[in-house]
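Co-fold these.
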Amino acid sequence: MLRSRALIDVLAVDFYRRPTEVVARELLGAVLVHETDEGLACGRIVETEAYTGADDPASHAARGRTPRNFLMFEAPGQAYVYFIYGNHFCFNAVSFDHPPGAVLVRALEPLRGLDLMARRRGMRESDPRLTNGPGKLAQALGVTRADNGAALYDPASRLRIERGTTAPGPIVVSERIGINVARHLPLRFHIAGSPCVSKR
DNA sequence: CACGCGATTCGCT
DNA sequence: GCGAATCGCGTGT
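Predicted complex below.
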């Protein structure tokens, strides 16, 4: 039975108005979608990390509000995209614990638009490294600074997160990756056994 | 206004 | 496994 495109089942804004680690865990299995003039590409979220505020030294929001991180303080359900290492973009979904908070999406399982993603990444569709990292998935989906602030809960948004169609299954909790402070905190979540999870 | 460094990736060894 | 690439943000002068 076909479903109309008009009935896109996005996660409502209230989904994001909860503690960041809850949002991070429950985003597993959901589908990150990006529509551009080049076409639609989407993937199932299989790995996330939670970043909060003053209690989390590794968070961009740890030392208060700045022109870069202000969305973390006031925009639950919106995209927070930042540029890192002079080369890569990272995609986050803003949450709302007590503000601030955001969930870094670290890996996807490609679902649609494989050809487009492969072209953007400069590799074959079958390459397992297509979306198994924060910068990689941003490049594959064509997510850039221009998408900062996108309303992920809006069915009409070109960048959005839809409800997953399959249960994520067992979830593994571990330490976060690529940071030098607060690395002991159990704020990384991934779907057990997924071949698309970032390395380590 | 100058400087240091990061929620990364890729290529080479 | 290691290090370069590359640049904007945040902090301090």
